[in-house]
Amino acid sequence: MLLVLTACGGGATAGGGTGGQGPAAQGGGTQESNAASQAVVTILPKDGADSVATSGVLKVTAQQGKLTTVTVADSKGTEIEGKIAADGASWSPTSHLSGGTQYKVHAIAKDSAGRESAKDTSFTTLVPKNTFIGHYTPEDGSTVGVGMPVSINFTRGITDPEAVEKAIKVTAVPSVPIEGHWFGNDRLDFRPEEYWAAGTKVTVHLNLDGVEGRPGVYGKQKKTITFTIGRRQVTTVDASAKTMKVERDGTVIKTIPITAGAPSTTTYNGQMVISEKFKVTRMNGATVGFGGEYDIKDVPHAMRLSTSGTFVHGNYWAPASTFGSSNVSHGCVGLQDARGAGDSSKPAAWFYDRSIIGDVVIVKNSNDKQIKPDNGLNGWNMKWSEWIA
Q1: Are 354 and 348 in contact, with CB atoms under 8 Å apart?
Q2: 289 vs 79: CA distance, rounded Å
Q3: Is the dihedral of CA 309, 311, 317, 320 positive or negative?
Q4: What one-character-per-residue DSSP string does 30-47 give?
Q5: CA distance 83 to 71
Q6: What is the dihedral of CA 85, 89, 93, 99, to 10 degrees?
Q7: Alpha carbons within 13 A on the beta-carbon side of 164
Q8: What is the pLDDT of residues 1-33, one digit of tens each?
Q9: Which one of 228, 234, 260, 362 is least enclosed by Cβ atoms within 10 Å?
């Protein structure tokens, strides 16, 4: 025990004294090495601040030194991403803050002698009075077709699209470039350049909480959505030949006779994505601009292709000889079916049972224009160069 104490006390002799107990003797160093750091850390907003804006206010700086560590975290420990400048003089967040949230800031800087200076503060962000969210598709956990985009419709018109788009991240495994495109000021879609590869896993991070989408209106949504791309099914409707070829993973598995739009009510051309499925639904011409021309209360095996009312659906009211020989519909693609959707042997039932949301239906050789990209989930009709412009 005496030997240990003697060894530990050797610093007293090295410090120039015989058993002295001054600071230099205890620490084994010099007065200069124990001097306070010259670095000064400044944090904005000030400690205890309330109703702080969710962007443009938070900043950490250092004078007479360089920042080495900055962490900003909420009460759950979730950290805000940020970056220290190359010269070490400042730190700024790379994302916005959430509304109505308390944050704690911890910052450390070193002076030229390597001495550290730390500072800790806390502040609380504003509680928004006016908010917005995004209604998204597809659903979390769903399996969808290769044509399915991520489509987000906002409850308020967005005047700062850059801030909102920055708060949304869409990734895929296997990785592929994914870009967003705005349709007006309330809809943002994301897609890759080509259809998704079968089996792709897609993740959507909605970090809208605290984003000021328009003056005084803040997002209040923070959510992660994942979905999977199923098998590749792309169906091609030839309106002139009155046939529909169903291609699954590169192989045509069935050719079905159809009836497309009549000469006065032709079917749109273009790439369309199935956005809804109804085993039986009502179709009323008055809802899509046709007045009282038709009102069918039990249309079987209906799958929506456009917002304006284009469907591929079963047809039990036309003679069997119509399919493959005449175009008689009001713009939809009709397949032979039975009333009540109860006969699984009918072509419409077969196609319905083998289709999922997100599958692609391409219409060609119709005497009509190409469908607009925002009429349904049909952004594939826009060139990639336009999409990313």
Answers
A1: no
A2: 52
A3: positive
A4: -TTTTSPP--EEEEESPT
A5: 10
A6: -170
A7: 31
A8: 344 433 333 343 333 343 444 444 444 445 556
A9: 228
Residue-wise pLDDT tens digits, 267-320: 999 999 999 999 999 887 655 555 556 688 999 999 999 999 999 999 999 999
Backbone angles phi, psi at 188, to 5 degrees: -130, 120
C-alpha to C-alpha distance for 54 and 120, rounded to whole angstroms: 19
352 within 8 A of 279, measured Cβ to Cβ:
yes
DSSP for 188-212, please give it.
EEEE-SSPPPTT-EEEEEEE-TT-E
Residue 290 backbone class (left: φ over 0; alpha: ψ -120 to 50; beta: rest): alpha
Give me the DSSP letters along 234-260: EEEEETTTTEEEEEETTEEEEEEE-B-
pLDDT in tens, 326-350: 999 999 999 999 999 999 999 999 9
Are the C-beta atoms of 166 and 182 separated by less than 8 Å?
Answer: no
Token couple for 274: 């199935």
How many of the other CB atoms lie within 10 Å of CB of 299?
25
The pair of structure tokens assigned to 270 is 């273009």
The reported pTM is 0.85
The amino acid sitting at 308 is S
